[in-house]
Write a structure and sequence with these properties.
six-stranded mixed beta sheet
Length: 182
């Protein structure tokens, strides 16, 4: 395992990170905000392989002891209920929005992170409100002419692996005395 480094959080640009670098992204947030103030908004549906990333992350985070999680396999936060689910978030919460996305072949398997909101469903032409103070978009497949089909045909293994990387990185950053750092 490589040395831990903090993610550089300058400006509003999105930064492409690999799975090892994700912990630095979450550590940077933890240095600015206590764990209790954080709400993970995990966007997606369990009805599409590629779009299941958010609910998988949310489920894993709750299993790891995080209380501030919206969007799990049991209760997804998707296009049909996003605006209603946003009402569950307190005004004092710092929101980390997490969603799957489609991207370039060079970005496949990477994470696009930012100190700016995420626009859910952008890669499939959706028009949902921007959400989050921080954003993490996991590039689960390559964007093509049929984005919904591409998400349906995305590797479940890839999505589960990326969801686990996100949850482990968050746990390692926010659980300072955690036994979860494997």
């Amino acid at each position: 395992m490589g040395e831990r480094k903090e993610w550089p959080v300058t400006g509003l640009d999105r930064t492409k990170l690999n799975g090892i670098e994700l912990q630095g992204f979450f550590t940077g947030i933890r240095l600015d905000h206590p764990r209790e103030a954080i709400t993970f908004l995990c966007i997606g549906t369990d009805r599409s392989t590629g779009d299941a990333l958010g609910p998988l992350v949310g489920t894993r985070l709750t299993e790891l002891g995080f209380a501030g999680v919206i969007g799990t396999l049991r209760e997804p936060c998707d296009a049909t209920n996003l605006e209603r689910r946003l009402l569950e978030i307190g005004r004092e919460s710092v929101v980390i929005a997490i969603d799957a996305c489609l991207g370039t072949a060079e970005s496949l398997g990477h994470y696009l992170v930012s100190r700016q909101p995420l626009q859910p469903a952008r890669s499939v032409g959706g028009n949902l409100p921007e959400v989050g103070h921080y954003s993490l978009a996991a590039v689960v497949n390559v964007k093509g002419p049929k984005p919904y089909w591409t998400l349906q045909m995305t590797s479940l293994y890839k999505v589960m692996h990326m969801a686990d990387e996100i949850a482990r990185a968050a746990a390692a950053a926010f659980h300072s005395d955690s036994k979860l750092r494997k």
